[in-house]
Amino acid sequence: MKFELGFYGAAGNVTGSRYCLNANGKQILIDCGLYQEHQLKDRNWEHFNVNPSKLDAVILTHAHLDHCGLLPRLVKDGFSGPIYCTSATADIVKIVLLDCAHINEEDAEYKRQRHEREGRQGRFPVKPLYTTEEAKNVLPLLTPWDMKRPISLGDGLQVEFIEVAHILGASSLRFTITQNDETRKLVFSGDIGRWDMPILRDPSPIGEADYVVMESTYGNRLHGPQSDIEKELADVINDTANRGGNIIIPSFAIERTQELLFFLTKLLHANKIPHLRIFIDSPMAVRVTEVFKRHPYLFDKSTLSITRSLQPGNTTLVRSAAESKAINHIHGSVIVIAGSGMCTGGRIKHHLVHNIENEQATILFVGYQANGTLGRVILEGERTVRILGNMYDVNAHISRISGFSAHADKNELDRWLKTITTTPKQVFITHGEPEASQSFAEHLRKDFNLKVAVPVYKQVFTLD
């Protein structure tokens, strides 16, 4: 019994998730994500470490950009096989890829015009990472599959999706590899969600696993109590409204925006915050919210009514760029929820330009900010930041609510691991900044008595 496992992304960092399984003559790519850390973005342009035309299939854990965002380049470079994922993931991937392609095209054109104005023509033409047409070429390959119904990949290899609660449709993957009457179970955690959060059901138990590839985003940290979310959100909104400023919230279009709307609805119904106008300035978030309404079977029983609570009455769904620009001319406080969640692109940058130097405004972070992203730079206290090619002083109030996170913290990662009913032969720690990954790995060695590896980029393991 032998098979190989290659780590071609999310190794020593948080984004760019990409693993390759070579087993039984099959070559399977698990996730195909975009790098979002500034210092690693050049990897998005590199040739793939595996030949796309030789891959038999791609299996997606979920639809976040750092897990699916490089699929258009994979297809452009020769991949033509099935891309298996859950039904909800397929619906969201279509939105995510087209949105990302549009942003790539817009950013490339904006940068080209800026270079032209500044009189600096580079040696290479400015071009998008991929175009809308290239993103559309991925869509026919998406192959939706039911949760927990095994997919036969042929030659003694199968995989199943196990609900993991991170975002709508997110799953862990469990491969069953059979060779000469021997069987091994290989589990990829994907991004592990949380228990007792609104909207989604809790993570499902994993069961048997011989090898585990496990994320560690918050492997050395604990989140604040979930019960504090409403109070902290209300405090930020009330304080900012009393100052007469805007509340600008960089938010992921998938899950985080819908959770924000859920909590805002509760606060408004209880009259704990002023009835400010709320703008969802993300065409992608608007479309994803509609996807949520098509998949209520994934909701927690106590929050099935969410389909009626995803849009408070004072909410405006912003679609066009003109509507987005008009928000900045409104007098009085407003709440603006805009993408991207790490401030790496999209409309949030324009709202930051108009608010970050305003002492009355608040920039409120409700999600993870990867190392090197604009969001991380602002959150860490830099007093001057570069946005859309210009420098701005950070005068606005900077706030953070950690309880919103869709990633399990250290204790919740332990809780997920304890649902494995066998002792794994080895655990591979990925998808974390080095300090978090190493800390969590040492914790598993010491407290779980497990054999643990922290792979580096491009490292390949032969397992038997």
Write a brief caption for the model.
The protein is α/β, with parallel strands linked by helices.
Model description:
With 464 residues, the chain is α/β, with parallel strands linked by helices. It folds into 2 domains: 3-221 and 410-463, Ribonuclease Z/Hydroxyacylglutathione hydrolase-like (Metallo-beta-lactamase, Chain A, 4-Layer Sandwich); 226-403, 3-Layer(aba) Sandwich (Rossmann fold), CATH 3.40.50.10890. It is 28% helix and 22% strand. It contains 12 helices and 22 strands. The strands form 4 sheets. The chain has a 7-stranded mixed sheet with strand order 6-5-4-3-2-1-22. A 7-stranded mixed sheet has the order 7-8-9-10-11-20-21, covered by helices on one side. The chain is globular, with a radius of gyration of 22 Å. The model has no long low-confidence stretch (mean pLDDT 92).
- The average pLDDT value, as a whole number, equals 92
Tally the structural domains.
Answer: 2
Unreliable spans are none
CATH architecture of the largest domain: 4-Layer Sandwich
Number of helices: 12
| Physical arrangement of strands within the biggest beta sheet | 6-5-4-3-2-1-22
| Principal-axes shape call | globular
Beta-strand percentage range: 15-25%
The main pleated sheet reads as: 7 strands, mixed
CATH topology of the largest domain: Metallo-beta-lactamase, Chain A
Q: What is the name of the CATH superfamily of the largest domain?
A: Ribonuclease Z/Hydroxyacylglutathione hydrolase-like
Q: Provide the structure class.
A: alpha/beta
Rg estimate, integer Å: 22 Å
Kindly state the percentage of residues in helix: 25-40%
Got a strand count? 22
Task: Supply the CATH class of the largest domain.
Answer: Alpha Beta
The separation of the N and C termini measures: 5 Å
